[in-house]
TrEMBL record, chain A:
Residues 260-498 form the Radical SAM core domain. It comes from Winogradskya humida. It comes from the Bacteria. Gene3D superfamilies: Cobalamin-binding domain, tm_1862 like domain. This is B12-binding domain-containing radical SAM protein.
From TrEMBL, chain B:
Pfam families: DUF2344. This is Radical SAM protein. Residues 230-253 are annotated as: Disordered. Residues 10-202 form the DUF2344 domain. The lineage of its organism: Bacteria, Bacillati, Actinomycetota, Actinomycetes, Micromonosporales. It comes from the Bacteria. NCBIfam families: sam_1_link_chp. Residues 242-253 have a biased composition (Basic and acidic residues).
């Protein structure tokens, strides 16, 4: 049975909403396939506004990987702004995909990529608009499998009631395996219905199906245990790791939107994983080991990606791009290749050392200079040891001064507030450091025309990190420290004028903390907050702290816990954590030791350059570090003259 | 950075915004067009200066949400190309629905595109409105000397006359919407409006129909710009590219 486009109905509503272009699709790279000639159909959702969701690499990669399969169809859907949501409800228009405007409910899978927990309420809105029951227990054979992925799915317990399954880790191979399981199950005539399909997924041992696990609680509210409620599913669910990034050079055909989005560039992931060991960084912990993409694959992807997309910006992405073993040759090679073009190349520069500036200098050879950002993360030497960010104050000042003397007039500095063991003084130290930076910069350049921007956000402890046991700081303490820091920066008027200050309030972070380290009981809070109208939690104009606090206060007492219990409470070593049955490969004992090391300000080196420190990932996941150098270089590009007219090109 | 290569050829294009992509705003189109130039390998010329911009100039753009068969722009090139090939290359480099329909080489001294555009022809489809009802509203509008309407502009709320710039306004006899929107009835109106300041757009004329005849379409009208150009005394609109084409023919290119 074919599926009708809802566009004729939607079209009537679009003139009445803001930025209608975000709902019409038609991007370069978009794929529309015939519904009936495919067997497995995915709706991929990034649960935030189109302008944020479209550039998301994860969704773009999976979209392309899936659509390359002949009998598979993948389309995209994004969170719908409240203006259109209201009109859709009024007129009975369901959640749709932007590619062919098909109703999301008609697909086999609704795959959601949760980069952060702030998309949870938007998932509920989408399910509701789609006509899919919010509770997975109420779904039937006609409903899609609601599948969560992305970093937040390393603890999907707060959304366990709403999703059918979760995948931890890299998605490229996982989506193909899931597709295979669904294809087979459908070919057999869907035996055993939805439950059988979920069971087949769970038996892979790397797809988590929450309904097959029961959580028992102790009288004091802590978790007693999480165990399978049937004999044929694993006790622990493993994360996925895609090895050999050269074999997965996606996106090849990046989606190029008509609407304005947050990133308009060809982004290439130059490596995945990070072993710097910053203790606050969930991404660094859960994506181990480091797997590099080789210099030649990166060069080829950029060449083809630019030709395909027409973009004039390239981002060399990873968790710490200057750490790529071939980064020097990569930057000079690319700078050479794009010297006479208007292409701007950029590196998200967070490493605080002069090498980073050399690289940025290389990349700006054609006159297109991009901003420099450094992330010392903590203001005092002491707190940087706590978080394992091995940067001294001299390093920072020397690095920034080098940037100034090389012609950068302004740099950005990133910090966090509310880190474990933090005192007021640790934060005030940021202000003093910024003063020193400006003083040294003025001295070295002989001009007052230099600036820096201090950007600071509240720390949120995340699962599968050494700080998973840590207490969060209260929002009022955070906000007070942020105020004191502002005063400290402005205590010297001359220096203060050269320092920009940007900060995020503590309140949204506390709620992010609740959602990050919550268990299944937090799902009730999410549901209540959504019922009260909560949506778009990542947007300050839509986020309501009071609504979340009220929802928690209404729902949690029944379980003998509260908002503080989930956020500002420090956990003990033996407490069962909600995500203990989900295996990121990190040895829990190692994480605890690293937490203890943190408190004693003991620093941990990087295993790429020093011996293995037994975090547990490689042996338990059967993976290994994959780094170069390959010794290869990027060759000059031969410019192609003349118009490119369509020969075989252009498939939409 | 050295100086930019000079402009050696100017090409004028007519393009369409069709179907769902009529919701492309002018800014959205401009970004997409710049990327299309790169994808198609067009030897576009750049402005001088610290941040060089591609040489593109647009004639007045249709409002977001309004379809168009007649949008115009001009580009400056640093190498001479074949206009027909350029049209094909650019059309292929843009999403379907943003379609490049025509390309001609601009003749020197022939005046700018803007000089050749003083009116637009619009088609307004009114689903769920009976032809007879629309015809009566149009007649009432035409019989009124001045129809004051209000619209928010960048300068705030403004009141202006929507009647005077209307040169031609009629309900056509075609039945059913060519766009294949909802089933009948659907009144179809053809409208020619002269370019004035502030611009009077189809939605202003629709406001005028509400003012004079209380016409309130139950669903949003679907509007398409059919032509832009200079209005002849016979009420025809002359394609602004014709002049370049004729010159080229005379010149024997």
């Amino acid at each position: 049975m074919s599926v009708q486009s809802v566009f004729p109905q939607l079209e009537q509503l679009l003139p009445r909403v803001s930025k209608p272009i975000q709902y019409v699709g038609g991007e370069l790279g978009a794929v529309v396939k015939d519904w009936d000639s495919t067997t497995v159909r995915w709706a991929l959702m990034y649960p935030d506004a189109y302008e944020v969701g479209l550039p998301n690499q994860g969704v773009q990669i999976l979209y392309e990987v899936l659509n390359e399969q002949e009998d598979v169809l993948a389309e995209r859907t994004y969170a719908i702004w409240p203006d259109l949501e209201a009109l859709m409800k009024e007129n009975g228009v369901p959640q749709f995909t932007v590619d062919a405007h098909r109703p999301v409910k008609a697909f086999d899978v609704l795959g959601l990529s949760f980069a952060t927990e702030l998309g949870y309420t938007n998932m509920l809105s989408a399910l509701d608009l789609a006509g899919i029951p919010l509770d997975s227990a109420e779904r039937g054979i006609d409903d899609p499998i609601v599948l969560a992925g992305g970093h937040a799915s390393f603890n999907p317990e707060p959304i366990a009631d709403f999703i059918d399954a979760a995948v931890l880790g890299d998605g490229e191979e996982a989506v193909l395996e899931i597709t295979g399981i669904i294809r087979e199950w459908k070919a057999e005539g869907c035996p055993g219905g939805r439950d059988e399909l979920l069971l087949r997924l769970a038996r892979t041992e790397s797809i988590y199906v929450p309904r097959f696990y029961d959580v028992d609680y102790l009288p004091d509210g802590r978790i007693q245990r999480v165990v399978p409620n049937r004999p044929d599913v694993p006790f622990r669910v493993n994360k996925r790791t895609t090895m050999d990034l050269d074999a997965w050079p996606y996106p090849k055909k990046p989606l190029v939107p008509l609407a304005e989005t947050v990133h308009e560039r060809y982004a290439v992931e130059i490596f995945r994983g990070c072993t710097r060991g910053c203790r606050f960084c969930q991404a660094g912990m859960i994506t181990r080991p480091v797997r590099e993409r080789s210099i030649t694959t990166v060069g080829q992807m950029i060449k083809e990606g630019l030709e395909y997309s027409g973009y004039s910006e390239v981002g060399l992405l990873s968790l710490s791009s200057a750490d790529h073993s071939e980064i020097g040759d990569m930057c000079s090679g690319l700078a050479e290749q794009y010297a006479d073009t208007n292409v701007s190349l950029s590196l998200p520069s967070t490493r605080v050392d002069a090498f980073n500036i050399d690289l940025a200098q290389e990349l700006s050879r054609n006159g297109r200079r991009t901003g420099l950002t450094f992330a010392p993360e903590g203001g005092s030497e002491r707190i940087r040891k706590v978080i394992n960010k091995m940067v001294t104050e001299e390093d920072l000042i020397r690095t920034v001064v080098t940037a100034y003397t090389n012609g950068w007039r302004s740099v950005k500095l990133y910090f966090m507030c509310g880190l474990p063991t933090e005192t007021d003084d640790d934060v005030l130290q940021i202000g003093r450091m910024a003063h020193e930076v400006i003083k040294a910069g003025r001295l070295a350049t002989g001009t007052k025309d230099i600036k820096c921007t201090v950007s600071i956000g509240a720390f949120v402890p995340k699962p599968h990190t050494p700080f998973q046991w840590a207490a969060m700081e209260r929002p009022e303490v955070i906000d007070n420290r942020l105020r004191m820091l502002k005063q400290e920066i402005n205590s010297d008027r001359s220096l203060g004028r050269a320092i920009g200050y940007r900060y995020h309030d503590g309140e949204p972070s506390l709620i992010e903390g609740l959602l990050s380290r919550g268990d299944r009981r937090v799902g009730k809070v999410i549901r209540r907050a959504w019922d009260k109208g909560q949506r778009f939690d990542g947007w300050s104009e839509h986020f309501s702290y009071a609504r979340w606090v009220d929802s928690a206060a209404e729902v949690l007492p029944e379980f003998g816990v509260d908002l503080d219990w989930f956020t500002t409470r420090e956990r003990e070593q033996l407490e069962v954590l909600p995500w203990d049955h989900l295996d990121s490969g990190l040895d829990k004992d190692w994480l605890w030791q690293d937490w203890m090391d943190s408190k004693s300000e003991f620093e941990q080196d990087d295993c790429r350059w020093t011996p293995c420190f037994d975090c547990g990932v490689c042996p338990s996941m059967d993976t290994e570090i994959q780094i170069g150098p390959t010794g290869k270089k990027l060759l000059p590009l031969t410019p192609v003259a003349g118009l490119r007219t369509p020969a075989a090109a252009h498939t939409h | 950075m050295g100086g930019q290569a000079p402009v050696v050829q100017r090409i004028r294009l007519r393009y369409a915004k069709r179907g769902p992509l009529r919701f492309t705003s002018h800014r959205d189109f401009a970004r997409a067009f710049e990327r299309a130039l790169k994808r198609a390998g067009v030897p576009i010329a750049f402005s001088q200066g610290f941040t060089p911009h591609p040489k593109i100039s647009y004639a007045s753009a249709a409002p977001t949400g309004v379809g168009s068969e007649a949008e115009y722009l001009e580009i400056g090139l640093q190498t001479v190309v074949d206009a027909a090939q350029l049209r094909v290359a650019l059309d292929a480099a843009l999403s379907p629905g943003l379609d490049v329909l025509d390309a001609v080489v601009a003749t020197e001294g022939g005046g700018s595109l803007a000089d050749r555009i003083d009116a637009s022809k619009w088609r307004i489809e009114l689903p769920q409105v009976e032809t007879q009802v629309a015809a009566e509203a149009v007649a009432a509008f035409l019989a009124t000397e001045e129809v004051l309407v209000e619209r928010m502009t960048k300068q705030g709320k403004r009141e202006f006359d929507a009647r005077n710039p209307v040169a031609f306004f009629t309900v056509t006899n075609e039945s059913g919407a060519p766009s294949g929107a909802n089933a009948a009835p659907c009144a179809i109106i053809d409208l020619v409006v002269r370019q004035v300041t502030p611009a009077v757009r189809p939605d202003d004329v629709m406001s005028g129909l509400r003012v004079v005849a209380g016409l309130e379409p139950p669903v949003p009208p679907r509007v398409t710009r059919l032509a832009q150009g200079s209005l002849t005394s016979q009420g025809e609109i002359v394609d602004p590219l014709d002049a370049d084409r004729e010159d080229a023919t005379i010149g024997g290119r």
